[in-house]
Amino acid sequence: MVNIAVMGYGTVGSGVVEVIRANGDIINQRVGDEINIKYVLDLRDFPGDPIQEKIVHDVDIIINDPEIRIVVEVMGGIEPAYTFVKRCLEAGKSVATSNKALVAKHGAELLSIARDRNLNFLFEASVGGGIPIIRALNSSLTADRIEEITGILNGTTNYMMSKMFYEGADYDEVLKEAQDNGYAERNPEADVEGYDACRKIAILSSLISGQQVDFEDIYTEGITKITREDMMYAKEMGMTIKLLASSKRHGSHLHAIVAPALLNKEHPLYSVDDVFNAVFVHGNMLGDAMFYGSGAGKLPTASAVVADVVDEAKHLHRNIMTMWKNEKLELLPIEDTSKRFFVRMEGGADARKAEVEALFGPVEIVRVSGLDGEFGFITEVMTEGEYGKKAAQISGILHMIRFEEQGAEA
Amino acid sequence: MVNIAVMGYGTVGSGVVEVIRANGDIINQRVGDEINIKYVLDLRDFPGDPIQEKIVHDVDIIINDPEIRIVVEVMGGIEPAYTFVKRCLEAGKSVATSNKALVAKHGAELLSIARDRNLNFLFEASVGGGIPIIRALNSSLTADRIEEITGILNGTTNYMMSKMFYEGADYDEVLKEAQDNGYAERNPEADVEGYDACRKIAILSSLISGQQVDFEDIYTEGITKITREDMMYAKEMGMTIKLLASSKRHGSHLHAIVAPALLNKEHPLYSVDDVFNAVFVHGNMLGDAMFYGSGAGKLPTASAVVADVVDEAKHLHRNIMTMWKNEKLELLPIEDTSKRFFVRMEGGADARKAEVEALFGPVEIVRVSGLDGEFGFITEVMTEGEYGKKAAQISGILHMIRFEEQGAEA
């Protein structure tokens, strides 16, 4: 029997209990042993819930029990999760977590503690919920140099962007609807400002580079400025707008960014709608691949956590190598990255085209019926730095959105 | 140093050599040791190719060399691959293969030999080329009961179906074009009759059931009867037609089938075009997930083979468990499986609707402009057996294509 403890009996924690209860037979068969939940740590009590008899309020009970081999951390947040996880690893227990904030900030250190003790620290559920992208990077795409990872990593904002695209709705409208449906929180900042996606792409960037990528270094722009009018232009051009989190290799550097982007129909992420997440990967041998699934939700997330428990139970005294050193990776400054830019501009296209082209070079003009007194254009490829300098020299820019072309150099 | 041998220096074999040459530094870092190709087995010589010095013509040199720890089998076909692989395993060497015919027929036995000797027999590249679906099933989706796997598993036929859809071309036309482009072989039977997809879904069915699924038991229908007119109906209904290979769970049974199917835009496989492959998976906790990528091609396939070599080099004395017993699984007979059917029928819809509905119950009539003297309809859900009986009672059926509804019971 492999005894485990679950720290946190919230949405994901209760999901973990449910997955082990529902699929215990196949899970035990795969482990080759019986997984038993011995403790559930929570500040609260759950009278009437069968879990109540396993509830403990003191983490030391878990840490000091040598029978506990694996600890599931699904409390969220940095503290006390960090202290608890570190103490569990130091006490010889493997840890599985869904906590992206913890992994983005302390992943390298916790992995190193696990490695030194022949334990495992796994975090499949921290990125993409039920999508097995982390294990794919660690165990499947091992013959490749990963040149790019671009993902739709936040379900809330993807739901909102999909609504705006299909229903022509306004940002405020879809945010309210998402909140009413429980897809967005009352304080939606972490989602709509891109902070959640930023921590996730920081984790993926660390994994593909093998070094520490600090999320604070990643340029992050949310969806709060995306309007109904932007989406009308996107439709006119046969495109859509998604919040993308992306990490691309330039020699030994990475460039990472979280921002809304225009995608055309040829891009594999174009048709990823609603609360679904997807991760596009380009390997130098593999070519293009994509992983798609439920990025959040109680059971998909819990399924990923329990898959980590299964792996840890099969490798109780053996570290599954993850290359992620503490050494910090410097990202390529955003000013030096190149792409095409879509710009919405006040005025008439006929009147202003010469002025625009004098500055930006040849552009494709886009007009949308119903939107008078403005027009849009897509620039040639240039660096963010160049774009910024040019944009400062012309008046009347209403909005700029980056164009994510598949296969284009960033 | 981990010495390996490559059996077969054809397309995939030379790809394996190229991947190890190009990405040797990261591959060795991931293994924690140096991978060295010591022998390449081929009947031919390759004068002038740097590989020539490693070429051997006699498999016994590989089998009798205790330095060889891992053997890559990329010859294809059942014999002599089966005999060679079995002898390698019995001589204490792990084996990685891309050979779907070998795995579909002898997978259970070869896995059992590997398990008994603490070796590994891995075959990621045998299904979906560069798409890491097999490792996902074995190591990632381990907390789930997999209820369905439906895939576009053959790039040649998907290329042809995409051409027919986008260009309104005829079957014979696109087959010739695919042959001219090198996407289809001069003798295209294995692809267009569905035999290739059938072996692949047999492998996936065995993995999700843990028992032997014989490919001979799987109902298999190719794309040779799909016409330009069928595709016109599909378009009229907002759908497309794809060759799907599918395996669905009914209690302890599986139902597996390879056949062209109508898909609507909501299905994740709808937008998988050209030579790309994709695998849709539904788990009882995970919900829906999809894996997409290059299903064939020299480097994507070689990348998957080398990822298996990496895994085997990291587990030289430890079997990575794969649940696939020799015990045969009886599939649910196709007659007992339920779905909706699209039927094309001679005559006028107005004249024949009553006759059709008297037999099939209420149907949705579809007319396509330009196709006079015929109409189409989609039935309610019924078993294949019921459909067959009804279809025998009415004259003028031009073609029947199954409708693959996501989330529908099969």
TrEMBL record, chains A, B:
According to its UniProt record, which reaction does this protein catalyse?
L-homoserine + NADP(+) = L-aspartate 4-semialdehyde + NADPH + H(+)
- Pathway it works in: Amino-acid biosynthesis; L-methionine biosynthesis via de novo pathway; L-homoserine from L-aspartate: step 3/3; Amino-acid biosynthesis; L-threonine biosynthesis; L-threonine from L-aspartate: step 3/5
Q: Which branch of life, at top level?
A: Bacteria
Top EC category:
oxidoreductase
> What Gene3D superfamilies is this protein classified in?
3.30.70.260, Dihydrodipicolinate Reductase, domain 2, NAD(P)-binding Rossmann-like Domain
Which PROSITE patterns does the record cross-reference, listed alphabetically? HOMOSER_DHGENASE
Q: Where is the Aspartate/homoserine dehydrogenase NAD-binding domain?
A: 8-124
Name the NCBIfam families on file. Answer: PRK06349.1
Kindly provide the name given to this protein in its UniProt entry.
Answer: Homoserine dehydrogenase
Organism, scientific name: Ruminococcus turbiniformis
What is the phylogenetic placement of the source species in the record?
A: Bacteria, Bacillati, Bacillota, Clostridia, Eubacteriales
